[in-house]
Every structure is written in C-alpha cells, then in structure tokens.
Amino acid sequence: FLVDETPIRVHTNLEHRGIPFPKDQAMGVYSSIWNADDWATQGGRVKTDWTHAPFVASYRGFDINACECPVSVAATENAKRCMSTGAKRYWWDEPTVSELSLHQSHQLMWVRANHMIYDYCTDKARFPVTPAECVHHHH
C-alpha cells in the first residue's frame, strides 16, 4: 500500500510456503475509529485522548489503480475478469512492482520507525505463537 508514493504496508505473497494470499477476491479499503488503547497503543501505555472528538477521517485525491470488482457481479466472475493471462497482463504483475526498490524499503523502515504504533507480528501477549505470515516477513 502506498500513500503519496511512500510504502506504508506490504503484504507479500507467500503461498509457496503455505500461507494464504487474497489473490482471488476483491479487496476494499475502509476506515474506522475504535478504542484499543488497552492493548494496541504501545501495550496500553498511550491512551486515546477522547477530548479531541469528534474524530474525522477523509480521503483526498484517492486513486485506486486496480481491476474494478462491481458488487453486482459474482465474486468468481470478478476474479476471472481480473486474473492475468498470457494475453492480458496487469501493471501489478510486472517484475518492477513485485518487490520494493531499495529506496522504497528505506521509506517503509522510516514509516514503521516513526508512525507504527502497533504490530501484531511482535505482540507476544496476544499471539504467543508468531502468526505464519509474520515468520517470513522480510521488509
């Protein structure tokens, strides 16, 4: 996921290692505000300041460059329409976008160091056994 051309989240396809990857279903984007300050905010050390409510989130210049999956069309049909074949390739199948560049890897490290508050991959209290997708996390 990129915000202003800066990677903020990477979900690597590790199906070859037996880890499911959501490649055959539509993906959506949504926002929510929920109270998780007892566990998600640095283990509960940082509390939500509810005096700043109401909280408002908005998207500006939101552009999704992907294959559209209308709700009126069956999921299996949408998946077929958006799958690449030898004759039809999408931008996300190109080798240049299958991995982050060195610069993008550094940007992602900066985002994590300066903006990430919670990472379930490192939450041993909630997940004593490291989730499978986190074991091979290399970004």
UniProtKB/TrEMBL annotation:
<keyword id="KW-0808">Transferase</keyword>
<protein>
    <recommendedName>
        <fullName>xyloglucan:xyloglucosyl transferase</fullName>
        <ecNumber>2.4.1.207</ecNumber>
    </recommendedName>
</protein>
<dbReference type="GO" id="GO:0071555">
    <property type="term" value="P:cell wall organization"/>
</dbReference>
<keyword id="KW-0961">Cell wall biogenesis/degradation</keyword>
<dbReference type="Pfam" id="PF06955">
    <property type="entry name" value="XET_C"/>
</dbReference>
<keyword id="KW-0134">Cell wall</keyword>
<keyword id="KW-0964">Secreted</keyword>
<dbReference type="GO" id="GO:0016762">
    <property type="term" value="F:xyloglucan:xyloglucosyl transferase activity"/>
</dbReference>
<dbReference type="InterPro" id="IPR010713">
    <property type="entry name" value="XET_C"/>
</dbReference>
<dbReference type="GO" id="GO:0048046">
    <property type="term" value="C:apoplast"/>
</dbReference>
<dbReference type="InterPro" id="IPR044791">
    <property type="entry name" value="Beta-glucanase/XTH"/>
</dbReference>
<keyword id="KW-0326">Glycosidase</keyword>
<dbReference type="InterPro" id="IPR013320">
    <property type="entry name" value="ConA-like_dom_sf"/>
</dbReference>
<dbReference type="InterPro" id="IPR000757">
    <property type="entry name" value="Beta-glucanase-like"/>
</dbReference>
<keyword id="KW-0052">Apoplast</keyword>
<dbReference type="Pfam" id="PF00722">
    <property type="entry name" value="Glyco_hydro_16"/>
</dbReference>
<feature type="domain" description="GH16">
    <location>
        <begin position="1"/>
        <end position="59"/>
    </location>
</feature>
<dbReference type="GO" id="GO:0044042">
    <property type="term" value="P:glucan metabolic process"/>
</dbReference>
<dbReference type="GO" id="GO:0004553">
    <property type="term" value="F:hydrolase activity, hydrolyzing O-glycosyl compounds"/>
</dbReference>
<keyword id="KW-0378">Hydrolase</keyword>
